[in-house]
TrEMBL record:
Active site: residue positions: D16, N64
Cofactor binding summary note: Binds 2 magnesium ions per subunit.
Record-given protein name: Isoprenyl transferase
GO biological process terms, semicolon-separated: polyprenol biosynthetic process
Organism in which the protein naturally occurs: Candidatus Scalindua rubra
Lineage: Bacteria, Pseudomonadati, Planctomycetota, Candidatus Brocadiia, Candidatus Brocadiales
Amino acid sequence: MTKRKRLPNHIAIIMDGNGRWARQRGFMRVRGHEEGVKSVREITTECAKKHIGQLTLYAFSNENWKRSKTEVNFLMRMLKKYLIEERKTIRDNDIILKTIGRIEALPKDVQKELSISMEESKNNTGMILCLALNYGGRTEIVDATKGLARDVKKGIVKLQDIDDATFKSYMYTSDMSDPDLLIRTGGEMRVSNFLLWEVSYAELWFTSVYWPEFKKKQLEDALSDYAKRERRFGGLIE
Ligand code: IPE
Ligand code: IPE
Ligand code: MG
């Protein structure tokens, strides 16, 4: 194995392929989501052990409401169960739980479990685990623009003072670093409205492996590829 030079501080993952994993085995799609939770646990624990600064997981997009009522309901129930059951994982690994997305549109009982978990973990000092829930990159930019426009109107911010940093301070991710590594499982080569602003200079890593099969070994592969990348940010390396 190649010697690892450096680890990403922030890893973002588009956890895709649950449905296809299930279909391939003759199961209902939802079985794939259940199996996917096991990968979430393994990858979260692994990243925390490696002292990764932040892990952001795309769990439910603005567009995922388009799915059948049965599947959406299942995902919401599963999310609630996950939040309750994973409190131990969060505690044991000193994880701080955060979210991005329009949380206010999630079922009330899910919101309740979320706030309990976030409150319980807020004084932890390890990795940030950020769940993207009812998240959309375009919506995030629209919401940030509304907030900024409001403050310009009130005279709190001057139009001529707006720069990248000002704009970022109105995003859901205002207090977070940008992802260094973006992983997508499931074989699709697209970003599907995930962190559009924040991935500007992220290293992209795609695998055809379905999310339920993405484990420690696959994470190691992504990390050793990442370590070999030369990040120039538009500049030059001497
Ligand atoms: C990702 O798996 C999980 C969510 C989007 C909630 P999918 O459900 O999209 O699985 P595929 O892509 O249909 O296989
Ligand atoms: C992206 O996967 C969203 C999540 C992983 C939560 P999708 O399955 O929704 O993306 P598309 O529809 O293939 O682009
Ligand atoms: Mg999918």
